Amino acid sequence: MKHVRRVNGAALPRPLGGVPPAVAGAVVAGSYLAVRSGLTDAVDREIERRLTSVRHRPGDHVLVVATDLGSTFGLIGTTTVLALTGRRIAAAEVSAAGAAAWLLAQAVKPALGRQRPYELGSSARLVAPPAGSSWPSGHAAVGAAMAAALTTVGNRRLAVLAAAGAVAIGASRISVGVHHLSDVIAGWGVGVLAASGSGAITRRLRLRTR
């Protein structure tokens, strides 16, 4: 069901409930402190072991393609599909949130300068070497931002599908050997923060044009 609200007689999407920005910020800060203190090391290694142990050759090809849903190419593809299916507001929200998430993730990567699992020799790498620090995951950030953006346009079904996709993208980044679990969790937080900021801007612009 699509929720709408009216402003000056014009129908605008009513946002669904989502993760509050304060919670997302606490997640990012908590992940940063936990990684710096080494509190996440044991859990990161165990999750990495579990996710990489189930890999098999036919599935690896699917995994390599699926993990790129959180890349800039995945973002472009998603927004294009939304626009072509008549969901122009959703496409604009997702595009802005995804781009903001990518930029924010790149901006905070130098904060830790963390090595990736394959660089530590603990996991095989199945994709091209990513640039920058392991923390936070940029792909996870983009995936979470897209999901969070869809909650602002009132489409519950798309939001649920996108949230499931964000979880899958995060898990895939661990499986392909380029991120730790704590990187992914921080990425999700970064994505929600980025979507919150970009959404506030795009909604203000829509109100002005209305």
Structure notes:
This protein has 210 residues and is mainly alpha-helical. The protein has one domain: Phosphatidic acid phosphatase type 2/haloperoxidase (Vanadium-containing Chloroperoxidase, domain 1). Helices cover 66% and strands 4% of the residues. It is built from 8 helices and 2 strands; from the N terminus they run ββαααααααα. It has a two-stranded antiparallel sheet. A hairpin with a 2-residue loop joins strand 1 and strand 2. Helix 1 packs antiparallel against helix 8 and helix 7 packs antiparallel against helix 8. The protein is globular. The two termini are 23 Å apart. The N terminus is likely disordered.
Key features?
8 helices; mainly alpha; 2 strands; 210 residues; Vanadium-containing Chloroperoxidase, domain 1; globular; two-stranded antiparallel sheet
CATH class division: Mainly Alpha
Based on secondary structure, the structural category is mainly alpha
- The CATH level-2 architecture is identified as Up-down Bundle
Measure the end-to-end span: 23 Å
Low-confidence stretches: 1-13
Instruction: Tell me the strand order in the biggest sheet.
Output: 1-2
Query: How many domains, in number, for the residues?
Result: 1
Please provide the ordered H/E string of secondary-structure elements. Answer: EEHHHHHHHH
Largest pleated sheet = 2 strands, antiparallel
CATH topology: Vanadium-containing Chloroperoxidase, domain 1
- Give the strand tally: 2
- CATH homology superfamily name: Phosphatidic acid phosphatase type 2/haloperoxidase
Number of helices: 8
